[in-house]
Amino acid sequence: MWESKSTTIRKGAQTFGTVLYYLACCPFVAPQRTIDFLRSVYFYRQEEKIRWLDQTLIPTVAPDQLFPGLFENSVRLLELGKNRRSATTLLESYVLASVVRFVDARTLFEFGTFEGRTTLQLALNSPDEAVVYTLDLPQDFTATQYKLSFPEESQARRLPVGGLFQPYEVAGKIKQIYADSARANYESLRGKVDFIFIDADHGYNYVKSDSENAFSMLSSKGVILWHDYASRWRDVTLYLREVVKQQDKRIYHLAGTNLAIYAPSASLPPKTRMARSSEIPAAISTCHQTNRIPKADGQTPKSR
After folding, report:
1. Which one of 46, 138, 149, 150 is CB 3.0 to 4.6 Å from 203, fit for a cystine?
2. Where in the chain are the domains?
3. Res 31: pLDDT
4. Using one digit for the tens of pLDDT, what is the confidence trace for 36-77?
């Protein structure tokens, strides 16, 4: 969709004002903001460079190019408050919830629970009879199979593992697993999982181990999504490039996000134009509307 000239001018003025604020004002009154701004610009440029180099291996597509009609159904999103930092963006949460609904996932698996924000979205948007498995390290772990890329992660949590979803009725469909993902037993789930989200430790060995287990658990209609593709966590991108080269699996980057997806049952129509990595699906406006759902609509915290 083409923007009007006035919209383009307005956006340009807003961008110029933002840059001026961080580079001309903040150095004197809030220098840390300038440092954070420059760091975010640097990481953005690095991500764009990686995506550009990877286009032949991992093309960028709009989510609804891969799944036509993906955004036609509404989704339910909760606990996305501005006062709590989240690794996944609002758009990424919206895309994940939409894919869960689109594939009608009955068995779901998440590597990396953290506080349980994404887990909650998966549970909210899957059928009532669905089961959502989510795995994270136990609080008292002493050693892991591989070296952790972010051993301070537990200190970054403000709540216990899964603390965000525990107050909700929908928590009844969530099965929390406490284990080292490289040592866990997945035998009972082989070939049975419809939706898998990988967002645990981002070191190469764990990304590889989690992904290999995910491939073995995938059902015939299943999808796997990785978070932090083309981000500062380079090992995620490195491993996925190897998978495409060595295993002949088709993996896509979803435009406007740091999500990569493997969806063997989905296919792009012939002559599909690849999206630019900076393109945001038009459905983002719907995403903002959906995020305004009050807690009284659908899921309320359990009475204590």
Report:
1. 149
2. 5-44, 55-290
3. 84
4. 778 777 766 666 665 555 667 899 999 999 999 999 989 999
The pTM of this model reads: 0.77
DSSP character string of 55-98: TTTS-EE-HHHHSTTGGGS--------TTS--SS-HHHHHHHHH
Task: Name which CATH class applies to 55-290.
Answer: alpha beta
Tokens of 136: 């994270």
The rounded Cα 218 to chain-centroid distance in angstroms is 18
Q: 169 — alpha (psi -120 to 50), left (phi > 0) or beta? A: alpha
Nearest to 103 by CA among 185, 218, 10, 23: 218
* Residue 225 dihedral angles phi and psi, to the nearest 5°: -125, 140
| Eight-class DSSP state of 255 | T
State which amino acid sits at residue 70.
Answer: L
Q: What angle do CA 255, 194, 81 make, to 5 degrees?
A: 55
**How does DSSP assign 169-232, residue by residue?**
GGGGGEEEEES-TTT---GGGTTTEEEEEE-S--SHHHHHHHHHHHHHHEEEEEEEEEESTTSS
The per-residue pLDDT for 146 is 95
**Amino acid letter, residue 205:** N
d(CA 125, CA 290): 12
Distance (Å, whole) CA 144 – CA 289: 42
The Cα 48–Cα 34 span in angstroms is: 21
Q: Are 7 and 14 in contact (CB under 8 A)?
A: no
Q: What is the pLDDT of residues 67-81, one digit of tens each?
A: 999 999 899 999 876
Which backbone phi and psi does 50 adopt, to 5 degrees? -60, -45
CA distances from 75 to 39, 177, 272, 297 (A): 33, 26, 26, 12
